[in-house]
Design a protein that fits this description.
1% strand; 73% helix; mainly alpha; 2 strands
Length: 666
Amino acid sequence: MSQPNLSSFLSKSIDHLSYATLLLLLFLTPLFYAGQHFYAVLVFRIIVLFLGGGMLVEALVLNKPLNIEWPFIRMPTLIFIGFIVYVGFQAIFLSIQPHATRVEIGNLVFYFIFFICLLRIFSTRERMRSVSGLIAFLSATLIGFGVYQQAHHLKAIYGFWTTPGENTPFFSTFLNQNHYGFFLLLCLFFLVPTIAHTLETSSSKLREDHELIESIFYFLLIPLAMASTFFAEARAAFAGEVFGFVLFWIFSLSKERRKNALAMGLIVALAGGFFIYLFYTERLREAYQQLPNHFLSRMLIYQDVWRLFGERSIGGWGLGTFTWISPAYQSADLENSHWAHAWSEHLELLSETGIIGYSLFISAVGVLTLKSLKNCLQSRSHWVRLTGIASSTAILCLALLTFFDYYLRTPAIAMLAILHLAVLVRAARLYSAEPDDKPEGSPPSKNGILRACFLGAAMMIWLGLFLFAFHQWTTEKALAEITKEKFTVENADLLKKAVSISPDSPELWGRLGDIHYGRANQSGGEEFIAELEEAMNCYQKAIDLAPTWPNYYFGLGRVKVLANKPMEGILEMEKGIQQSPENRDLRLYTILSLLKLADHATDAKSKKLFELRAAQDWKQASALARPLTKTDFSYLRNSTSLSPQDKARLTALFQRMGEVEPRNTN
């Protein structure tokens, strides 16, 4: 086989293998909790490295053009690279938690490579149609599993796919029902362009009335998807679907048919509303009557984020640092509210990256989306126009809903958003008459030395990304498989191995400190002293890496109390309270520690000192916006492990000091 033929064969093989790998990735992602499982994240990163590596081999070794529409995407890409460089600057000089910022930089790089690889793979319209069909199939499968699960009252399907909670009415591979609903929204936007392409290439008379066929699709399938989201009680996703589909429908129809379409849509909406009113009024009331209270609770987080933004409005705190710096989040998390993020991607990004970073990110995505949509609308192909409207509408809905939730934190949602953006760019360029600045996808250089330098640099980057993926997988695997209650030598060794690979992870050091503290409680003699020293070292290391996280101060404090250094331990706990002053759990734990020290004091002076300190802390806790009182301390999360003696100590203190009624904070 001659050299040109061999080169062409290898190029085609890489191309087809990359396309098959992409289909496999899209099919597997929803099966692993939307990509949130640590194995799923590792698989995604390995596949992205494989796709990117194949693309570089074609360009630098086989000397084939990349065909990624570089002249078209150049300006938005340079802006986005500027955003990554800025975030890297944050990780070195500005970030309050450099480890978290470096992790987010790695995630951004993987998503960026994924986007470039999609542009390379979507070289033909047929491939875009195939991917659209697969996504539509996944959407229909999820809805079908949901109906099957609800009809048979199953908590799991075939023992493999488990529900996020006992009351989840529809099957979901997501930990959040809104994420499930929005997954359906992003998927279903792909179906209409597929129908349009089928009609456009058909010889049937139906081709002449494609808008009628598309309208029938709206009235048959889309209401089913909305019903699925409605029954899943995904309120934000349901509202997003209604807005998105109405917007898509209006702009995809010709001006002559919009009036009739709006009339038909109004009739369907009224009929659907009347049907829901007759048969599902109670469900509607249960799902939406708490909406005002939930909105007010989110406003507390928004206020906290806005305060953080005000303190560093220009440069930000560092990408990925919100959970490490937000006292409101820390209070909510410890009181069992499980707020993972700020419930607003925009506010969180604004507080983390400041005005500079937020402007760069929004500019990159906004410029590329608007530029691509403009080209699509000017195309002669109905399929291209419809695809552009579909993908841009999906991106717009995501941008709006991320004001009220954190969808992009779910890997499957982020992947679908990037896929929509890649489809939009490719569709915009399929029939574009706009001249390129230079031949599309030309290799970096035909000079052998320069090409070798490019290849060497690419290999170094790929090695760094592989090590990053391996380190993150090791960290997440260790944290997922070990709980605080398993104080075994094997768990300690596993965490030490993970720490040696990722020594800048405060989570690993904190969990290792928990294990050594637990083993100290179960040992004596020299082993007891050694375990205490190990626990102190681990907690101190975690504090050095994450000085704004209160839990590690409390870990160090309880170790010092166990080491017969009670006042030093209490001072460490008070340092933790300073990081989250409204956190009632932390104050409750400190008060209880003081009461225990008072009961075990060997002299009257120490006993009196600890009791007085506990009373002072209780007075401070009773003056919080959400006061700690004798009627509600038993509902805090930590109280589930309180012994009867501990509850009696707290109750006695509250009775001695007198009850302070909670203030109305509304």
